[in-house]
Amino acid sequence: MNPSASELFNVVGGKQLAGPRTFDKINPVDGTLVATVHEADREVVDQAVDAARAALDGGWGGAPVSERVALLRKIADRIDARAADFVAAEVADTGKPVELARELDVARAAANFRSFADTVASTGLDSFLTETATGTALNYAVRKPLGVIAIIVPWNLPLLLLTWKVAPALACGNTVVVKPSEETPSTATLLAEVMAEAGLPDGVYNVVHGFGPESAGEFLTTHSGIDGVTFTGESATGSAIMRAVAPRVRPVSFELGGKNAAVVFADCDLDKTLDGLTRSIFLNTGQVCLCTERVYVERSIFDQVADGLVRRAKALQLGRPEADGTTTGPLISQKHRAKVQSYFDLAVQEGADVLVGGGIPDLGQELAGGSWIEPTLWTGLDNTARVVREEVFGPVAALIPFDTEEEAIALANDTDYGLAAAVWTTDLQRGHRVAQQMRVGMAWVNTWYLRDLRSPFGGVGLSGIGREGGVHSMHFYTEPTNVCVAL
Ligand code: NAD
Asked: How are beta strands 292-298 and 260-264 bridged, if at all?
C-alpha cells in the first residue's frame, strides 16, 4: 500500500459521491497504487445528469456572456495558481516526465479556458438583410447552449483534452458531466475543486468515474437526459458511442485515432527534420493521437534519415518522471504495453527489420513493476503490413522509401485514418502543394504539433467527426435559432 495514495470520489452538484464499488489506479512508473477510485453506477450517473440539468435551467444556461467569460478567466488563473498540484496529479497517473506535464498538459489547460473565453467574447451573430419583391427583413441567428453535454476523454493528455472540451462547453452556456479515463482520474477530480474555488455554480461541472461498457461511460452515453456527446478516444469506441446515442439522435463530436504520416523530401533541412521527427514519433512515449507512425522518406536520403533517427532514439532517456534528463516515460498501463508488444511481435512476423528497440528495457528492480517499452523503429515493411495500417499508440514508426512526390502523397493517403500529417521540405511551393493534398484534418510543414487554438482541429475517415477549436467549437456546443423580422 502506498501511504500517499488518495481516495477519489465522483463529483455531483458540488458534492463528493461514493459509488458502490471502487477500482485501483496504478502508477505506470513502478506499479504502486496512486488512488482508490469510486466507480459511478447508473444511479450516480442519473444524479450527475440531473444536477447538470438543474444548473442549466437554474441560471447558467442564461447567464450573460460577460459573466461566463469572467468565470472562465478565473478558472484559468486558478489552474495557474495550482499548477504544481495538477502537474503532480498528472505525473502520478501517467508517469510522464514532469517537464512535459507542466509544459504540455497543464499550461495548455489554462490556455484552453483563456482561448475560449476570448472566442465567445468576440464572436458576433450571423445576420443578413433580406430583400425580396414583397418586402425587406432582417434575418439573424441567436446561438443557444446545446444543453447537458457528456464529455468522455482518454488517458494520454488527460487534463489538456478534458479542458479542450469543458472550456468551450461552459463558454457557450452548457453544463457538463465528464467521464475521465479510468487510467487518469486525478486531474478531472482536482479540476472540480478549482471550479468551486473560482466560483462556478454547483452542478455546472460534474465528474463520474469508471469504465466504458456496463459502467459510467455506457450509462452516460445512453442517458436520455444528455443533449450531446463529445468524445476523444479510439475509433472503435467512437463507433460504439454512435450506436449508443443513435436511438435519441443526439449530436456527436469525435476526435479519434490516427496513423499519421510524415513525408520527408531530399531537399529538407536534415537536422531540423530529424529533431522534428524524433519529437513527432516519441513525444509522450508515442501516446499522442497526432504522433507519426509512418515515415515516408525520399530514397536518396533514406539511409541518412534512418541512421539519424536511430541515433536520436538511442539518446532518449527512460526514467522516473522527476529525474534530471528523463525524456521518456512508460506506457500508460500493463494492458496497453501488452497491446504495443503484440504489434512489436507482429512487425517481426510481417518481415520488419528492427533498427532499434523492439522489446522491454531493463531499468532495474525499482521500475520493474512499471509498463516500460523501448523506443522502436522498423524498416523493410510496406503499406500492406498490418503494423503500417493499424494504430499502435506507442513509441514506434515504420520508415518506408519513395521515389516521386506523387508516390509519396499516394502512400501517405493510403490509410483508413486521416488525422494529421507532416511534410518536411525546404521547397515552400512543394510544402503548400503536398500539405493541401493530404487527406487529413491537420497538415504541418516543417513543424509538428504547433497549435493555434482558434484553428480547426479534428480528423477525416476513422479519425473523427466534426472540428473543434475557436468558432468551430461554438458550432458544436450551441444550437442556432434563426429569427426573421419583417422591416
Ligand atoms: P478509449 O476509446 O479506449 O477510451 C476513451 C474513453 O472512452 C475512456 O474514458 C473510456 O473509459 C471510455 N469508453 C470506452 N468504451 C466506452 C463505451 N463503450 N462507451 C462510453 N465510453 C467508453 O481510448 P484510450 O485508449 O483511452 O485513448 C487512446 C485513443 O485515443 C487512441 O486511439 C488515440 O489516437 C485517441 N486519441 C485521439 C485524439 C484526437 O484528438 N483525435 C486525442 C487523443 C487520443
From this structure: parallel
CA of 402 to the centre of ligand 1 (A): 33
> What's the pLDDT score for residue 10?
98
Report how far residue 400's alpha carbon sits from residue 378's, in angstroms, rounded to the nearest whole number. Answer: 9
Give pLDDT tens digits for 15-41. 999 999 999 999 999 999 999 999 999
CA 17 remoteness from chain centre: 27
| DSSP annotation string for 363-422 | --GGGTTS-----EEEES--TTSHHHHS---SSEEEEEEESSHHHHHHHHH-SS--SEEE
CA 132, chain centre distance (Å):
47
Structural domains of the chain sorted by starting position, each given as residue range(s) with its CATH number in brackets: 6-256+461-486 (3.40.605.10), 260-445 (3.40.309.10)
Q: What distance in Å separates the CA atoms of residue 193 and residue 205, rounded to the nearest whole number?
A: 10
CB of 154 within 6 A of ligand 1: the answer is yes
Global pTM reads 0.97
Per-residue pLDDT tens digits for 333-345 = 999 999 999 999 9
**Mutational pocket test of ligand 1: of 23, 42, 156, the residue with most ligand atoms within 8 Å of the beta carbon:** 156
Using CA atoms, how far residue 410 sits from 153, 227, 276, 299, 300, in Å, is 32, 40, 22, 16, 19
- Residue 301 half-sphere exposure, CB side, CA atoms within 13 Å? 20
- Candidates 104, 152, 160: which one to mutate for ligand 1, based on the most atoms within 8 Å of Cβ? 152
How many beta carbons lie within 10 A of that of residue 355, not counting itself?
17
Q: What is the pLDDT of residues 68-83, one digit of tens each?
A: 999 999 999 999 999 9
- Name the residue among 229, 122, 109, 119 with its Cα closest to residue 168: 119
Percent of the chain with pLDDT over 70: 99
Q: State the distance from the centre of ligand 1 to the C-alpha of 454, rounded, in angstroms.
A: 24
Phi-psi region of 286 (alpha: psi -120 to 50; beta: other; left: phi over 0): left
pLDDT tens sequence across 233-256: 999 999 999 999 999 999 999 999
Cβ contact 152:170 at 8 Å: no
Contact between 40 and 201 under an 8 Å Cβ cutoff? The reply is no
User: According to the model, what pLDDT value does residue 2 have?
Assistant: 60
C-alpha torsion 221→235→313→156, nearest 10: -10
Q: How many other C-beta atoms are found inside a 10 Å radius of the C-beta of residue 275?
A: 13
Q: What letter would DSSP give residue 462?
A: G
Residue 151: strand pairing partners: 178, 230
Position 1 confidence tier, pLDDT thresholds 50, 70, 90: very low
Q: Are 235 and 205 in contact (CB under 8 A)?
A: no
